[in-house]
Amino acid sequence: MILDLPIEVAQGYKSPSQIARVVTESWMGRNMYCPACTANKLCDMIPGTEAIDFVCPRCDAPFQLKALSRPIGRKVVDAAYDAMIRAIQRNRLPHFLFLSYDYSDRKVTDLLLVPSFCLPSSAIEKRNPLADTARRAGWVGCNILLDVVPPEGRIAIISSGNVIPKPVVRKSFSQVAPLADFSVRMRGWTLDVLTVLRSLRKSEFTIDDAYSFETVLSHRHSENRHVKPKFVFTNEPFLCTTKHR
Predict the structure, then answer these.
(1) Alpha helical stretches, state H, 90-202
(2) Within this chain, do residues 210 and 168 fall inside the same structural domain, yes or no?
(3) Burial bucket for residue 243 (CB in 10 Å: 0-12, 13-18, 19+)
(4) Do 187 and 152 share a structural domain?
(5) Quick one: DSSP state of residue 45?
(6) pTM over 0.70
(7) Can you give the pLDDT at residue 111?
(8) Average pLDDT of the residues in 46-74
(9) Domain limits at 42?
């Protein structure tokens, strides 16, 4: 990957937001490959295509780019809340690519991949409605809470200016790919359990450690009245890299 931004493609544009969009999308089209298969390029979607910026020409995997002129933090502003929740419930999310760049140095600094099946509805935060004086009064947007995505679902492609080898990225993607076969409801539960257990930062955990998150998980899954019994059922097959006793 070449980290230099193709600033020359923005000639003729005056709006900072348009310049940022054109430059980052051009960089992505020149440098990004598909992490889900062996394709070494992604194709641009037709301008105006809702929610999808790129697609893999081989496996048809869709991608949405979120470009930031600041470091990638725990929260990223996204579009309409209701539309995002519907996309998760209907299993129609694209994979997300979060790109951070330094415009003064004209370089990409970080690129983070969150596969569509690693983003639970609990990671979508509803924002306050726009004021009555706003052009879209009452519109409700959302934030993506990256710290609610389990570490396995936050796959670094570029980290602090260092490019992660392509085979490493594809292996990381393949390790979480089985989640795509889960039902949406079971997937959301599994991701939330994985996130809270990973927050322990332990290579081993006890069942009592897991039970300590009962309140957190009950809040995220208010429809589930049997949180404790589901720990043993859910985390056994997927948390294969974490031991419990």
Answers:
(1) 166-176, 184-198
(2) no
(3) exposed
(4) no
(5) P
(6) yes
(7) 98
(8) 91
(9) 7-71+94-119+145-176
